[in-house]
Amino acid sequence: MKIIDIGANLTDPVFRGRYRGTQAHADDLGHLLARARAAGVVGMMVTGGSLSESAAAVELCGEAPGLFATVGCHPTRSTEPQAHAGGADAYFAALRALIDGNRARVVAVGECGLDYDRLQFADKEAQARSFVRHFALAEATGLPMFLHSRNAAADFARLVRENRHRFSAGVVHSFTGGAEEARELLDLGLYIGINGCSLKTDENLAVVRALPLDRLMVETDCPYCEIRRTHASHALLPPAGGAWTPPEAKRKERWDSGSMVKSRNEPCMIRQVLAVLARLHSVDEAEVARRVFDNTRRVFFGGIEHEF
After folding, report:
1. 3-state class of 145 per DSSP?
2. At what angle do helices 51-60 and 87-100 cross, to 10 degrees?
3. Residue 42 backbone dihedrals phi, psi, to 5 degrees
4. CA 79 from centroid of its chain's CA atoms
5. Total structural domains in the chain?
6. Residue 120: inside a domain, yes or no?
7. Residues in the chain with pLDDT < 70?
8. Residue 112 is part of a domain; what is its CATH number?
């Protein structure tokens, strides 16, 4: 089984053992990557959410095989480009230079899009301005897009539709919308990324069950979006002792190198997302893995020389 996690926030300090500025345990990124490989994760897309975070993601991708970066500005950080020295033009020129200087590591423009749940960080106008600049970046580089849409379906679809000719392909990651929103995204030729947050409620499960496997990708969005006991999807997980069992998880204060950290999602847990998709679509987990792997490789890795 080969799996690519399309959304892993591996630059987050928690994967170096730091939580809210305090070192709680040793840097365990290497152990995390080993657990991912043991679970069949052969590739991870490290998400860039700002200029500095994108640079950190690209740098991290040089530390281990199978890591690739996205480069962009998250909608909640849409005020950053204007505040940058030299303004938005200089900010996006720096993103372009980061991509051009690291074509073997960068596989997508983003994370970018609209987020109306957190307008306290950036208003709608700032988000729209930043989003449109990303279409120009995708057009100039020829890269696909890694997209974010939260409580902004109408405006998101409108901006994508107006700019759809400017990029080859894209995925709307961490999808939590309804059936109508999903149909519109599919009609726009986009793929849909599924993680634990996509599988919280019975309504979520019904929407995901109706999505075609040839338009899906899987992710963890770690350290966020794990499948929790309170989620509707938890009842669909296979019993312990099956083909794959999650490693033990301990509180960060009791961390050891062989354990995950409680409430800190990590890439190996993508196996749970696959297991739920398999139950929802009534197919074998290995078949789901093959289908979403092929989707991901075709969209994001067709332009680089890499064998998984």
Report:
1. strand
2. 10
3. -100, -10
4. 22
5. 1
6. yes
7. 241, 303-306
8. 3.20.20.140
